[in-house]
Specification:
Jelly Rolls; elongated; mainly beta; 46% strand; seven-stranded antiparallel β-sheet
Amino acid sequence: MSNRAKVLPFPHFDRPTVRVTLWEGPGRPHEDALRAELAGAGYQVVRWSNEPATGYPPHAHIYPELLVVVAGDLTLVLPAEERLLALGPGDRAQVPQGVLHGTMAGPEGVTYLLATK
């Protein structure tokens, strides 16, 4: 038997994916109603704003997070999937733990709720 290293096949892992839900309500969403809905579902909610064309480089968390756009536009950057997701008011993205993602505010800036459990 040889002491040399062997090349083993890499196991297949299902990659968690970001789920997006588009706003279907009439008009624009109301921040207070969104906040109440999220708190009622057990989320801790923080309001976050970014100036136009600013954001955060790709990063990952040890917890899942939910982003809900209140005003403006947000681009969610998913490097591993080579995708950009455009989110507007009321749209939400569920980002599983460990998923590499970044954000970029639109030309008017963005305000969104960042919810975690």
